[in-house]
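Sequence in, structure out. First:
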Amino acid sequence: MIRCIRQGIFTNLAIFEIIERIDEQNTPFYADIDSMELMEKLSSVSSEMLSVYKVKLDKIIENIEQKHLIDLADIWMFDEQKETYKDYINKIKNKIQ
């Protein structure tokens, strides 16, 4: 999925898969992916493409914020990573508003 976005191929399908998996897992932090790179790539996609998934993205972001999932995740090696991740979430939020 991340490779598709990186290479600019099947981007719509990759975005759909990423959003569906996050929604299905009810968290963006699960074992078989690099959560940081996932949000980085998702935040790099155009606002037009992300807007198609606005309802689901709003739900995902609300879940992350209300449950403080970023602060609770045990994947961070440095506090800066946490802040960078929050920046990616904010980029996505701004793109879909």
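Second:
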Amino acid sequence: MQELSQQQKVNGSVDVDLMVTGLIPGFEVSATAYILVLQIQSSSGATYNIASSTSPSTDVGAQDQNQQNLPTSNNNSIISL
């Protein structure tokens, strides 16, 4: 946490590389990729943004237009910070 309090700006990139399927086989679905990012706010009101590069296969996924997570496979996404 000490490192976060000293610096908040981080450059990074995400290479989304995964296969998405719908919840119901045989029906077309529109999907949007997502990346998990966490924002923490201290009791004094300071905010800190956190992204993880250690587990891209769980931090990158896909959702449909109703924000439901969709099944993915072959998730070879890369998060570089």
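Remark: Strands lie at 13-15, 19-20, 32-35, 37-41, 47-51, 60-63, 72-73, 78-80.
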